[in-house]
Design a protein that fits this description.
By secondary structure, the protein is an all-alpha fold. It has three helices and no strands. It is 68% helix and 0% strand.
Length: 106
C-alpha cells in the first residue's frame, strides 16, 4: 500500500512494439496514397485511349471528320508553310495568299 497513485496506474509500454505498430500504419497510409495516385493516372490513360479509339472509329465512318492526328498534321503543315519565308530567307520564297493559313481556318 506504500505505492503512489501514479505508480499504481502506470502502464508499461514496450517501445519497439509500439513504434513498429505505428510505422506499419504509416506505411499502409503511404501505400494507399500511391495506389490511389496510380488509379487516377490509370483512369486518365484509359479515358484518353477511349477518346482516341472512338475518334478513329468515327473517322473511319465519316471521311469529313478530323481526328486529333489529322488536326495535328494540318496544323504542323500550316505553320511550316506560313513560317517558310521567315525560316528560309535565302530561298526567296513567295507564297500566294490563298495557300497560307488565315485565322482559325484549319
Amino acid at each position: 500500500m506504500g505505492e503512489s497513485l501514479t505508480e499504481q496506474c502506470r502502464v508499461e509500454v514496450e517501445g519497439p512494439r509500439v513504434v513498429n505498430f505505428f510505422s506499419r500504419r504509416r506505411s499502409n497510409d503511404v501505400t494507399g496514397l500511391w495506389m490511389s495516385a496510380l488509379g487516377v493516372v490509370g483512369l486518365a490513360l484509359n479515358l484518353r485511349a477511349y477518346d482516341f479509339v472512338s475518334q478513329e472509329i468515327r473517322a473511319a465512318e465519316d471521311p469529313e471528320f478530323e481526328t486529333f492526328y489529322t488536326k495535328n498534321i494540318l496544323l504542323n503543315e500550316g505553320i511550316r508553310a506560313w513560317m517558310a519565308a521567315q525560316d528560309q530567307p535565302h530561298e526567296n520564297l513567295i507564297f500566294p495568299e490563298e495557300v497560307l493559313p488565315r485565322g482559325n481556318a484549319l
